[in-house]
Design goal:
The structure holds two protein chains of two kinds. Chain A is globular and about 65 Å long. In chain A, 18% of the residues lie in helices and 36% in strands. Chain A is an alpha+beta fold. Chain B has a single domain, classed as RNA polymerase II/Efflux pump adaptor protein, barrel-sandwich hybrid domain (OB fold (Dihydrolipoamide Acetyltransferase, E2P)). Chain B contains four helices and nine strands, in the order βββαβββββααβα. Chain B has helices spanning 29-35, 80-83, 86-90, 112-120, and strands spanning 7-9, 14-19, 22-27, 38-43, 47-48, 53-59, 63-67, 70-77, 98-106. The longest helix of chain B is centred in the C-terminal third of the chain and has 9 residues, at 112-120. Chain B starts with 6 loop residues before the first strand and ends with a helix. The chains are: A alpha+beta, B alpha+beta. Chain A binds chain B through residues 28-29, 32-34, 223, 227, 284-286, 288, 307-308, 310, 315, 337, and chain B through 36-37, 39-40, 42, 56, 58, 60-61, 63, 86, 89.
Chain lengths: 353, 121
């Protein structure tokens, strides 16, 4: 059955165009993807990201256990700090990518992709070690992202204290609601994500809309979440990552710590001479995912995401290709519906604030 | 609405307007709202038969084919849709895509009322 997030009713009230995504009803857009995209780049936007999963891992050996699950290393992660990592299967393919919040010395929160929630939880339980407990807190947590250059100004109206550094978090009280606020997001802009009791979802959302009114805050949907992350060249599970793609294939090698004792998938990781590239489409047209890429008539890879990027005002794509042809400046051809569309390899990210 | 006077529809969400020897083709309001922000149109002047794919519309979200409602010649593409494809979203019935001449056949069109029944389903 398709689930509703705690904010479902307010999406309808705000005329969100609802779609089914990862088992949830969520708004793909309210006013339009391009308008919402540019609001986040220039101002501030509000996203319902309650579909994301949150697992709590605690116990004497929680650190050791998480380090076994992930390819990055959290040994030196401090309380109130966050780290990003892929989680690999035995073959070195990516099961999911996630954020690890260090809540306390022996307590962590993992934030995982909605579509992978069940698979991840099963994988974690199957690999569980002694002295660690894991539970899925997803259904009790509402998660809202407030993103854009004016997001700090809006948040300051609700809380005197805010996390100052990117990838850090604090817990505060907002109108009697206990809220974990992290300085994180998936848009390439400054911003925050709020985690709190799902029963308070609508109240908090309305507080944020109210506080953001003078900055012309707007509700934003999944459509612009995708174009924003693509413009910022952030990988998305199911596109730039999958169980068949290793972190080394997709430009995520800096999140693989080979000098760490051991982690699942480590021994299978091989350099297959692939990497992730950016493409700027030169010809008229749009290149989306799963488009074959030719360099001098030889197939060198396939696109993983692509569309029209509103802020850069052009068509772009990301792709996984053989490293030897990945040089910036190379002109390639993308096969789109039996047409060849020219593109230039450019460096990532497409957009950096 | 006045702008919908003499406008007929196809099952594939094009609208047509026939003025003597000339016929205009556009995208219905329903089509543009389903696609969302339109960013590119591919269309070429050429001879086509009823049902041929004459081009496609790219939105941020998706790509959709456009089908020929006529057997005839596309003699002109509206230059507005290349410079400002968003005009189709803002004003779908005021923004024609292409203009036909030499029309020798056409598909069975729907009236506005019949079309509205279809999109309700």
């Amino acid at each position: 059955m398709v689930k509703k997030t705690p904010l479902y009713d307010i999406h309808l009230e705000l005329n969100g165009k609802m779609v089914e995504y990862a088992g949830y009803y969520l708004p793909i857009q309210y006013s339009g993807i391009i308008e919402e995209h540019n609001i986040v780049r220039n101002n501030v936007g509000l996203f319902d990201v309650s579909h994301m999963g949150q697992f709590i891992i605690e116990g004497k050996d929680a650190l050791k256990f998480i380090n076994l699950l992930i390819s990055n290393d959290i040994t030196n992660l401090q309380v109130n700090k966050i780290r990003y990592s892929p989680m690999l299967n035995e073959n070195g393919g990516i099961i999911d990518d996630l954020l690890i919040y260090k809540l306390d010395e022996e307590e962590y929160m993992l934030v995982v992709n909605a579509a992978n929630k069940e698979k991840d939880f099963k994988w974690i339980i199957d690999n569980l070690i002694d002295d660690v407990i894991v539970y899925d807190a997803s259904d009790n947590i509402c998660q809202i992202a407030i993103q854009g250059p004016n997001s700090e100004k809006v948040m300051k109206k609700l809380s005197d204290k805010l996390p100052e550094r990117f990838y850090s978090f604090i817990e505060v009280d907002i109108n009697g609601i206990n809220v974990l606020i992290s300085r994180t997001g998936y848009t390439g802009e400054d911003g925050f994500e709020l985690y709190f009791d799902s029963n308070e979802g609508i109240n908090m959302y309305k507080e944020l809309l109210k506080a953001g009114k003078e900055f012309e805050i707007k509700p934003c949907g999944l459509g612009c979440r995708d174009t924003l992350r693509l413009e910022a060249s952030l990988p998305l599970y199911g596109h730039e990552m999958s169980e068949e793609i290793s972190p080394l294939d997709t430009g995520l090698e800096r999140f693989v710590k080979f000098d760490k004792d051991n982690f699942i998938g480590k021994d299978s990781l091989k350099d297959k001479n692939k990497t992730r590239i950016g493409l700027k489409i030169v010809d008229r047209g749009i290149v989306r995912e799963d488009s074959e890429i030719l360099f001098e008539d030889k197939q060198i890879g396939i696109t993983t995401s692509g569309t029209f990027l509103p802020y850069l005002n052009g068509a772009y794509a990301m792709a996984i290709v053989d490293k030897e042809y990945s040089k910036v400046g190379n002109i390639v051809e993308c096969i789109v519906r039996n047409r060849k569309i020219k593109a230039e390899i450019i460096s990532l990210p497409f957009y950096k604030r | 609405m006045d702008e919908l006077k003499n406008v007929l529809f196809t099952k594939t969400h094009e609208w047509v307007k026939i003025e003597g020897e000339i016929a205009y083709v556009g995208l219905s309001d329903y089509a543009q709202s389903q696609m969302g922000d339109i960013v590119f149109i591919n269309l070429e002047e050429d001879d086509y038969e009823v049902g041929d794919t004459i081009g496609d519309v790219e939105s941020v979200k998706s790509v959709s084919d456009i089908y020929s409602p006529f057997t005839g010649t596309i003699v002109e593409i509206n230059s507005v849709i290349f410079d400002d494809p968003g005009a189709i979203n803002r004003d779908p019935y005021g923004t024609w895509l292409c203009k036909y001449e030499n029309v020798s056949d056409k598909e069975e069109f729907l009236t506005l009322e019949e079309y509205e029944e279809i999109i309700k389903e």
